[in-house]
């Protein structure tokens, strides 16, 4: 009887260990290093670089799929390095001029960190997002004013949607029904209906719309105005800008916390005068309540599922800052590749 009880106790203990190991497994960050033609994979517990994945030319943005199995990366096709040429011919940091050939989205298997697919899209792709059900990926093509829609299973193009001038950042509404696209040179946000796959309206937003975002509860949408040093708040019900909030110089990416109470905004500034901080906006008062210094050229930002940590790419410092959202302080700085831009975290 004692032996049997010991065996049961051991079995239960082993099951608990296995369960806890699965539950407490580290998240991974995927960082698009535009100046290095790579994607850095970072363990969020040890903050070690797990892999440096060679991708196409000037990878600007990366998005992990909702099931965590794949990371989608925008770039401009085969680079000199992927072809075996040791001479890197990347575009200057921060530039966003259209390339001569159509760009692509490359797909990384997050289990092996190997590139498993390449999909040709439009001219100079900027950002990519994956629908909540994982079926479709949307890609902004800054060089031809379109959004490409990709079937993620077939990994093939299924639609091309005309939008505003020089579309850049984009995000999908929490209910998956709309895509908000920031038209960098058009001063507007295109609203795409995901049922019909067409633009239904353009919301006039301001100067230099760079990236959009939503609160998780769907009450508010946002767009960073890089040439106004502000964030515009959009009411998704009326599709109108209801207010603007001043932030730091050259705001680029923004991300709401999971509780829909705060918005983090990365202020990149310029190469000559880099921004170095993230603004925290209280979404009850719509005021900046805290500004935290991260690194030169704060560009990309993502918040983990618990809302505890935010991760910020510093494009001119070649690093990622780990920001404790509760305490609003940087707890770690991780060196990555040259000119880190987009950043995404496993769900």
Defining traits:
disordered N terminus; 4-stranded antiparallel beta sheet; mainly beta; globular; 6% helix
Which stretches are poorly predicted, pLDDT < 50 over at least 5 residues?
1-24, 82-98
Shape: globular
Query: Strand order of the main beta sheet, please?
Result: 3-2-1-28
Tally of individual helices: 1
The main sheet comes to: 4 strands, antiparallel
* Averaged pLDDT: 90
Notes on the protein architecture:
By secondary structure, the protein is mainly beta. It has a domain at 27-130. The protein contains 1 helix and 28 strands. The strands form 7 sheets. The protein has a 4-stranded antiparallel beta sheet with strand order 3-2-1-28, with no helix packed on it. A 4-stranded antiparallel beta sheet has the order 4-5-6-7, with no helix packed on it. Strand 1 and strand 2 (38-43) form a beta hairpin. The radius of gyration is 20 Å and the shape is globular. The model is unreliable at 1-24 and 82-98 (pLDDT under 50).
């Amino acid at each position: 009887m004692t032996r049997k009880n010991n065996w049961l106790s051991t079995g239960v203990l082993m099951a608990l260990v296995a369960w806890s190991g699965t539950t407490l497994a580290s998240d991974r960050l995927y960082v698009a290093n535009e100046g290095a033609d790579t994607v850095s994979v970072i363990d969020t517990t040890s903050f070690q670089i797990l892999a440096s994945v060679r991708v196409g030319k000037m990878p600007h943005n990366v998005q992990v799929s909702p099931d965590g199995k794949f990371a989608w990366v925008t770039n401009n096709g085969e680079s000199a390095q992927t072809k075996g040429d040791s001479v890197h011919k990347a575009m200057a940091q921060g530039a966003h001029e259209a390339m001569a050939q159509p760009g692509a989205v490359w797909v990384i298997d997050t289990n092996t960190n190997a590139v498993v697919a390449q999909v040709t899209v439009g001219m100079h792709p900027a950002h990519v997002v994956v629908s909540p059900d994982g079926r479709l990926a949307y890609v902004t093509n800054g060089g031809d004013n379109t959004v490409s829609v990709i079937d993620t299973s077939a990994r093939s193009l299924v639609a091309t949607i005309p939008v505003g001038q020089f579309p850049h950042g984009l995000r999908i509404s929490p209910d998956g029904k709309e895509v908000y696209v920031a038209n960098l040179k058009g001063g507007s946000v295109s609203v795409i209906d995901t049922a019909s796959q067409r633009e239904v309206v353009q919301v006039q937003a301001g100067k230099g719309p760079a990236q959009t975002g939503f609160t998780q509860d769907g009450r508010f949408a946002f767009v960073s105005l890089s040439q106004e040093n502000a964030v515009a708040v959009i009411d998704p019900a009326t599709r109108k800008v209801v207010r603007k909030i001043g932030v730091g110089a050259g705001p680029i990416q923004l991300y709401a916390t999971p509780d829909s109470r705060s918005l983090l905004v990365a202020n990149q500034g310029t190469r000559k005068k880099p921004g170095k901080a993230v603004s925290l906006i209280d979404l009850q008062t719509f005021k900046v309540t805290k500004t935290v210094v991260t690194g030169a050229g704060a560009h990309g930002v993502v918040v983990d599922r618990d809302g505890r940590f935010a991760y910020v790419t510093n494009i001119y410092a070649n690093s990622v800052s780990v920001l404790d959202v509760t305490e609003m302080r940087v707890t770690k700085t991780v060196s990555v590749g040259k000119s880190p831009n987009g950043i995404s975290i496993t769900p």
